[in-house]
Each structure stands twice: as C-alpha cells, then as structure tokens.
Specification:
It is built from six helices and ten strands. The chain is an alpha/beta fold. The strands form two sheets. It has an eight-stranded mixed sheet, with helices on both faces. Strands 8-9 form a two-stranded antiparallel ribbon. α1 packs parallel to α6 (160-183). The mean pLDDT is 95. The structure holds 5-O-phosphono-beta-D-ribofuranosylamine. Residues 3-179 form the Formyl transferase N-terminal domain. (6R)-10-formyltetrahydrofolate binds at residues 62, 104.
C-alpha cells in the first residue's frame, strides 16, 4: 500500500478527484493546507482523512515554513506528496528532500504559461489550444518532468471563467491518472523526461471536441 499526502491551499477539487478515484494500492494518509480556511479541508475530514494546517502566515521565513511543513508531511511517511492547488513556492531544499516523489498540477500546457493567471494569459496570447499538466516538481518553478497533459480547445467567446472550467474538468481526469501510474510503479524519470511503462500514449489526453465546431 502506497501512502499519499496531499497539499492544498483552497477549494481542493483536485484533491477530491484523487480521493474519489479510490486508486487501488493507494491510501490518502493526510490532507495538509497552508490556509486554515481552505474549503477542501472539510471534504477530507468528512472522508475520515487526517487533516492538518501549517499556516504560512505564522512563519517569518520561507525556510521555517518549509521545515514545519516537512515535519507535518513526514509524520505520515508518504511514498508520494501531491501538490493539488498548493499555492506556495517551495524552497529548493524542500524540493530536493522530496525529489522524485513530489508532483504538481499546473493549469497550462507546460512549458507555456508557467506561473500565475495562466487562463487569462492564454486568452491574451490568442492560443488555439490550452490545457493542463501534471509534472514532477523540481527546484525550477513549473519545469519538472511531465507525466501527463490534457489539451482543450480555446473557443470563440471564451473568458477566463469558461476556459478555466474546461481545463479544470481535464485536471480532474489527468491528476488521478498520474497518481495511479505512480502507485503502479510505472513512472520513471530519465533526465527531464518522465516515462510511463506499458502505456502507448502516456502523455496526452485530449478533451472531446466541442459539439458546435
Ligand atoms: C487548479 O486549477 C490547479 O491547476 C491550480 O490551482 C487550482 C486548484 O484548484 N494549481 P482546486 O483547489 O484543486 O480546486
């Protein structure tokens, strides 16, 4: 049985998708938030999952926060740490400590649109496709080996709300898929490339084409 700790900062819909996937061989040991009022904490607690808050505002320095966070994580001895809408940049020391067992979901087709406000920036750039990426976390922000991506169309009339909703639906598909592959020991890292054993098309799920095109 693989033990998983999920870190959230807010609503927690990706965490929920992973919990509801009920991945065989995986146990969600804890959900930890850096914000006491994160909506996702209530869902996790209702599922009987241990929850904890490590409030970043209580720490003057990033390194002190990361040390407290690591302590909370390590008390569950996880095989995998999942950043599911966790909105804090982690120190290189923290990332190194969990390298190879720390994954994140980012709401763009990396390496495009690293950082924040990805949907608005995609609209402003006029891209025709957008999407989401699950990747291993490395010291460089949003740059680690890609495990899976999902592509969605950008449609005429889209605004940030409609585009982000279309992407979020795909996040809820690919994140549990990536966790499942890791739990099944199928994912290996080769330089900056993640490989998935025994899957013909390991990288991309394309959302169904919109009906009105
Ligand atoms: C998601 O769009 C994720 O890609 C981004 O933050 C959002 C979190 O949503 N990093 P939720 O908390 O999982 O609902």
């Amino acid at each position: 049985m693989k033990s998983i700790v999920i870190l959230i900062s807010g609503r927690g819909s990706n965490m929920e998708a992973i919990v509801q996937a009920a991945i065989p061989g995986a146990r969600i040991a804890a959900v930890i938030s850096n914000r006491p009022n994160a909506g996702g904490l209530a869902f996790a607690a209702a599922q009987g999952i241990a929850t904890a808050v490590v409030d970043h505002t209580a720490y003057a320095e990033r390194a002190a926060f990361d040390a407290a966070l690591a302590e909370a994580i390590d008390s569950h001895a996880p095989d995998l740490v999942v950043l599911a809408g966790f909105m804090r940049v982690l120190t290189p020391g923290f990332v190194r400590q969990y390298e190879g067992r720390l994954i994140n979901i980012h709401p763009s087709l990396l390496p495009s649109f690293t950082g924040l406000h990805t949907h608005q920036r995609a609209l402003e750039a006029g891209v025709r496709v957008h999407g989401t990426t699950v990747h291993f976390v490395t010291a460089e922000l949003d740059c680690g080996p890609i495990i899976i991506q999902a592509v969605v169309p950008v449609m005429a009339g889209d605004d940030e709300a409609t585009l982000s909703a279309r992407v979020l639906a795909q996040e809820h598909r690919i994140f549990p898929q990536a966790v499942r592959w890791i739990v099944e020991d199928r994912v290996s890292i080769d330089g900056n490339v993640a490989r998935v054993a025994g899957v013909r098309e390991p990288g991309v799920l394309i959302s169904p084409p919109p009906e009105n095109v």
